[in-house]
Amino acid sequence: MTTTTTTKKVALVTGASSGLGHAFAIQLQEAGFLVYGAARRTDRMNDLNARGIKTLAMDVTDEESTSDGVRRILAETGRIDVLVNNAGYGSYGAVEDVPMEEARRQFEVNLFGAARLVQLVLPSMRSHKSGTIINITSMGGKIYTPFGAWYHATKFAFEAFSDVLRLEVKPFGINVVIIEPGAIRTEFNSIVADNLIETSGKGAYADKAAKLAKTARAENPSQSSPPELVAKTVVKAATARRPKTRYAVGFGAKPLLFARTILSDRAYDAMILRFSGVR
User: Fold this and answer.
1) How many CA atoms, within 13 angstroms, populate the side-chain half-sphere of residue 91?
2) In whole angstroms, what is the distance from residue 25 CA to residue 240 CA?
3) Spatial separation of the C-alpha atoms in residues 180 and 66, rounded to whole Å
4) 151 has catalytic annotation
């Protein structure tokens, strides 16, 4: 394939088939980017195609899939200016119940897949002496909730990974930005509840697991933010000459992160258990 160039800045968004990633792709396009939306299921991105957003099948845990995707974008445009590492999911269940195979998969999707994409886009960004890598972590990268040990472990790790990466690529004119969403109106909570019941719905943790699943499924729309709110922050970070290193955005993000800094561990434990309906 012959390499071409484009006058537009190019953005790659993973996990673009629904929720946050879907909103990111649309708003980046509206901001003037040539956007590639990536996800495992391209059939769920037909509406993005109809808008002129380019879509590609990509499984972030598969080397061939990620390498081919990045090569295609570079061949078609000659550059990748913005990488939005958004693909991920929440694996919930008691530590005692979660199979190690599932724990490893959680890291493969939420951390290692994103890390590999960073490796793949950096040579192009370095050659252009510019670029922005936006890593979608979560307020769950600094706080914790019951039964989310492996999910939170990946998000805490993603925060640390991003901090170190920022130091390494700064000399090349590349920005690394962390977005920490709070409670957002997506499929996340219902998926978490289903995973939790499937994993710990029986046995020693069944009662507490059922209570947390009930709380997750009963989320009040007034206590969550639309994905478009986070998308606006992604666009802000992608277009800023000097973006912030972190943005906490969405319902509960700033208050809960602040509470974590001022409360003792046991006081914070009590607050989270109460809010989760698990105490």
Assistant:
1) 22
2) 17
3) 24
4) yes
Cα–Cα dist 38/28, whole Å: 14
Judge residue 258's burial from the number of C-beta atoms within 10 Å of its C-beta, 0-12 exposed, 13-18 middle, 19 or more buried.
exposed
CA 229 to chain centre: 14
Residue-level pLDDT at 7: 81
Look-up: residue for tokens 């639309």? 226
Residue 213 neighbours by CB distance under 10 Å: 24
Q: How far apart are CA 45 and CA 49, in angstroms?
A: 6
Say what the pLDDT of residue 1 is: 45
27-36, 136-145, 184-193, 230-239: least confidently modelled range: 184-193
Question: Per the structure block, which two tokens stand in for 97?
Answer: 């119940």
SS3 state at 233: helix
| 64-96 per-position pLDDT tens digit | 999 999 999 999 999 999 999 999 999 999 999
| Chosen CATH of 10-276 out of 3.40.50.720, 3.30.1360.70, 3.40.50.1370, 3.30.2010.10 | 3.40.50.720
Catalytic residue among 151, 205, 247, 268: 151
Task: Spell out the domain ranges in the chain.
Answer: 10-276
User: Among the listed ranges 54-63, 109-118, 136-145, 185-194, which one has the minimum average pLDDT value?
Assistant: 185-194
